[in-house]
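Note to self: user wants both folds in one dump. Writing first protein now.
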Amino acid sequence: MMTRARKAAEPKPPISIIAACQDEAIFGPWFKDRETWTAWFAFLKVMFGLALEDAEHAIFQQCTGRTAPAPGGYLEATLVIGRRGGKSLILALIAAFLAAFYDWSPYLTGGERGTIMVVAADRKQARSIFRYLKEMLSIPLLAGMIQRETADSVDLSNNITVEILAANFRTIRSYTLVAGLCDELAFWPTDEGLANPDSEIIGAIRPAMATIPKAMLLKASSPYAKRGELWEDLKRYFGQDSKVLVWQAATRVMNPSVPESFIAEAYERDPANAAAEYGAEPRSDIESFVSREAVEACVIKGRFELPPMKGVVYSGFVDPSGGSADSMTLTICHREADRAIVDAIREAKPPFSPEAITAEFAVLLKSYGIKRVVGDKYAGLWPRERFETHGIVYEASAKPKSDLYSELLPLINGRRIELLDHNKAVAQICSLERRTARSGKDSIDALGHEDIANSIAGAATGLILQDWSGGRAIFEVERRRAAERANGPSPFIPNDQPEFDKPQWAKNSVEWAREQAGEIVPHPPREKVGGTSTATRTTDDEIRELFSATMKG
């Protein structure tokens, strides 16, 4: 069995990183106006255990809240830096220096390559650092080391590969890392219910560096909300003597070439945004919309979809999409007392044909007896025209999605909604954020996609709380129920379904459980009356009375 060779001495470069930045034949061309890089040179000295001058020591104290740096430097650092502060270039510099000037061969077995990995939310975002890095490795002194180059990686002759990777904890696990560079960490997913939360990715990077002495982990970002790995590091390590260095600095501290007037104008337009973007202060006007615990308490485990049932009136909400960027989603709900029951969820992921998905959704809506659907205001008239082609009336929602989310919150916190066991739906609801504008008005939205959450909010709140279209849709629910009570089964229910003589609660719902326990007495069989129901001609005032009585009951 092959064993890994080890030396007692740690890898040491033949030249310091500061000397490399001052040498015109190495990295000097990137740092011509050196006075504007003073703060960054102080950071590099601290990181690599080099002696500081008095002015640099003052910068260190200002940016870290510590009195003195660790004598041997740091192997892990979190940089909370304002935008345009220069962090991408510095991360690229460190990666190029570690790749070209360190000898990692004593810590690699035959055929094994050490990797310097640039990780971002997606590959496109990581390419900013990667472009700098490739240029630095292409200088005459180092160009001869390049053996192979692709759009996402560079292989060097010293068995080191520099590679960009989208944030995914599963793919990281197979690497041996000599350095991990995490770009814009504050904007990675943070919720543990999502596919790749930031904590899982950082947790996968650290073991990949365990066998490499002097391997470095650098996490850099402008700040965002007070959550996630960046916020936790800032809260835990800033101003504390620990092995993790936290360096927090505003844009002009790190890059004084950014005009002061530009920063002042940004603060004038939006102080909260500018404080995060250029002041490197996490936003205090953004908070999580709802707790994961509250959402999961509404999930009926093992319930993935409920079939159409005779005698039940259903409602649907569509979040349309053109098929190239966002998903197109549909949620179908019904109501039991004051509770919204989610029956079915559909998501069409891009790319797709909007015409084909509209036809598919129309078939599903009709199977639940729905001939009128409400949807998000999107792309003018095409959703209405396409659904009408398939026999479904499409009405645009009278309220923006932020209002729908606001009305969804009491349903979740009061457990007045039963959600399907649908991980993506739960994750999207949990990813919603509440943001307070300068005017004091709150808005609710997600940093990423929330198409499923939007359709759930529209379907559930429209059914329970709000009037979708000028006072008609919510009363139409009671109109149909009145017709059902007076005239027998709904004509919209397929004929091949069995007859029911009493209300059929959704399996595993609260009402179903109460009926099983004998707490709900089944209604006597209904008498079917021939002829036309008078309920179909009920006036709006009478429908309102029906609705009010139902809400009270």
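First done. Writing the second protein, which came from a different request thread.
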Amino acid sequence: MKLCDRNKFISLILTVAAIFASSVFPVTAADLQLRESGEIVEEKFLSGAPAADEVPDVTAKSGKVKSAAKAPVQDGYYRVVNVASGKCLDVFSAFYDPLLRAHLDEKRAADSQIFALIRHANGSYSLCPKTDDTSTFLSVSEEAKEGAQLSRTALSTEYSKFRLEKNADGSYSVSPAAAQLSGYALAESETERYNGLYSFCELQKRDAYADTQKWTLEAEEPLVPTLRISETEAAVKLYAISTLSATAYPAAYNENIKWTSSDHKVAVVDEKGSFSTLALGTTVLTATCGSQSLSCTVTVGEKVATTWYSQCNLYSGGWNALPVSRLIFVSGVAKPFFLDNWNGRIDWMDEGCYLACAAMVLHNLDARKPEGYDLRTGQTGNLPADPYTVALANTLNYGPASASEILWGDPVLVGIHNIAAAFRVNGEPLTAQTQGYYSPAQIRDLLKDHPEGVIVGMINGRGRHYIVVTECVNPDAAPEDYRFLVCDPGAYYPSQGNNVPFEQSYSYQSMYYRDWNFFEVTVLNAAQ
């Protein structure tokens, strides 16, 4: 066959094939329009199944399949129900399980079975238990592997985020968002149980046919986010560095908080609420999350500013307690560091008044811990004093890398000399001095040399309690008429603890301490 004849033959074959294809798979004008607009996209699915976040749809005009993004699960409160057992995902309180693990239980009217489900910009989700005021996250540990159990943490990390993939039957598969754990899914354990009664929620290798790995979401109620701020008014010394904390609820919204200063000449603030004072005056620092905002009026002066830290207010007690509240310290017993309010000593800070007082005085001195790591800010070394960093010093811990680690030592059995030695003022070490009962006149005299405050121990039939005395407001009066301002860590509200008259303090009003109950004083001495 000649070359020209062969080319004609090939051309004839191609023409016949095209006619046949167009008769079997007609291309309509609507198809051409869709192709020109880019709406038709090739579907490439592994294992012959659509990807989790791409469900094929059919166009009304052409009947052709095009890719359509599956609608994400809306933020809200949900029950998470296991398909295999019909049981609900649940969380233990610290009273029942100090490790705060997740388990499954029969459906009941309990906030521990309700979760705020929050979607992030990258498509992952957080699960915040309502029982914790949505202040914590379900999480796996950084070292998680097959069989690892879920627990609660106060920190938002890649290990506290999950991917939701909708199955053909309408249920969901839930897997950790961390890339190295993508081959695992959350499942009801068939072997591991708490006290032989409650099955744990654990990681298992993904199995598309395992009903123990499938979950349904039962919508409970709309979600209305809220915002809280640690202080609404603050007096700060010139050229000081301090921190305000704002907390969103559910906690998954915390990453959306933005900070601003109304007067950058007086103070500047960073994205975490840490601010530096630059000039005398007043500025308003505002935290904004979505449509909500809260402010703190900061007054900058030359006088030593006082600090108040609450041992019972987790949310607005003068320090950023929430991210470290679920840390477990072990000393004879294992307990979380801090739970909100008074809890019958099931958390360490229920007995942390002395620790909080030491932290207040250290902060008034602008003392810094030269070594250590603060997981709340990511800062290494030069750590400012608050009850958490002082607890690290007290237990000789460097500081955990994550809130899921367990620390050893009693954080509130205060060794004041060890704490003082762990902090520096202008690079110089501190010493502590504790003596027995001081009269009101002697306390007045101590305040002349220690404007940062004097730690005073009190004892009565209820036990011991510590406060910081900050000022004698009438030093020229008769000793029996002296009136002192105090910072009381036992107070939940600033009105009973933040540099208030002793007679107005929580320890006076509710614990019935009087000045005749004073039994010891402690001062911290900084090198000149």
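Dump finished. Worth passing along: The two ends are 108 Å apart (CA to CA).
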